[in-house]
Amino acid sequence: MEHPARVGNRLLAALPPADFGLLAPYLQKIPLEQDTVLLRSGDRIEQVYFPHSGAISFMLEMPNGQTVATAVIGNEGAVGVLSSALGPSGSPLTAVVRVAGISLQISAARFHAALSHSGAIRRAVQTHTSALLAQFQHVAACNALHSVEPRMARWLLHIHDRIDGDVLPLTQEALSQLLGVRRTTVTLVVGKLRASGAIRSDRRGLIEIDRTRLEEAACECYEVMRRRIDQIVSPEAMKPRSHATPVHEIPRDRDPLLAKLDEAQRHTRTHKAPGPRARGHH
After folding, report:
1. SS3 186
2. Domain with 49 in it: what CATH number?
3. Residues 132 and 172 grouped into a single domain
4. Are residues 13 and 35 in the same domain?
């Protein structure tokens, strides 16, 4: 695995090498395909994701089936971290890939074990939590105070901040889910933004934006949220504290989660390759 400074995820890149070393052997690079549901509300957290690229939205699902986005993350965040930090529990939100990309993946058990032995990893989780809470608060206020058009412009800008290029692969159905409104409303608002020159869209689900005009159409929440998130996840803010607790190697015999994983892996190897035990093995 690469040195943390060269890892595409900003939370991981901020970790000192020794702390990153607790995670590195178990991180796997995987593709993030558009519209993939990484976590579903209520499901047990099995994997933690650290995106390098792409954009992922956190969705709140209502009993009547409607959805609304509460936050969006890119390489400054993670998926599954909050619940893993609190121990085995169900996911409070649904996480959906909105723009395809690449991510590092680690089992929740491995991550939780490393978390318990690293002050720097705990600080990274705190940083991620602060950034998410800031989004949750601003999005709640924005949804209550602003109309659909500036809110749509804000979400498009948030997603644009996290990808390369000016073309966003978003369908009207995806926009409907993000905003918590009907597709007919999305169609009307897209028409208004197109008329103003802020976006150009076609039937293939691609939206090309004019950044300057889209910022003019968005509410002030976008700039407030952007500055706040940038402040929280800035390199200076995530720099390890000089008095941070030193990292310790994880004592595998004392961590029940790792013990169970190791036992399962040994069992798998035994069944895949049966044979006599090596001498001296106890």
Report:
1. helix
2. 2.60.120.10
3. no
4. yes
Q: How many separate domains does the chain show?
A: 2
Long-range Cβ contacts of 25-29 (<8 Å, 24+ apart): 25/1, 26/106, 26/107, 26/110, 27/1, 27/104, 27/105, 27/106, 28/104, 28/105, 28/106, 29/102, 29/103, 29/104, 29/105
What ranges in 69-171 are assigned the alpha helix state H? 81-85, 108-115, 119-145, 148-161
Q: How far apart are the first and last CA of the chain?
A: 31
| Length of the chain counted residue by residue | 282
Residue at 23 is within a domain: yes
Q: What share of the chain is helix, strand, coil (3-state, %, to 5)?
A: 50, 20, 35
pLDDT band at 245 (very low <50, low <70, confident <90, very high): low
CA–CA separation, 48 and 80 (whole Å): 5
pLDDT over 50 at 275, yes or no: no
pTM of the predicted protein model: 0.83
